Amino acid sequence: MALSPVFDLAGRVALVTGASSGLGRASASFLAKAGAKVVGLARRAEALDAWREEAGGETAALAADLGTIEDFGALADQASSAFGPPEILVNAAGLNPRQHADQVTPEDWARTIQLNLTVPFFLAQALVPAMREQGRGRIINFASLQSRRAFTNGIAYGASKGGVEQMTRAMAEAWSQYGILANALAPGFFPTELTGPVFADKDVSAAHARATCIGRNGEMGDIEGPLVFLASDASAYVTGQVLFVDGGYTAK
Question: Does the annotation mark 249 as catalytic?
Answer without folding.
Answer: no
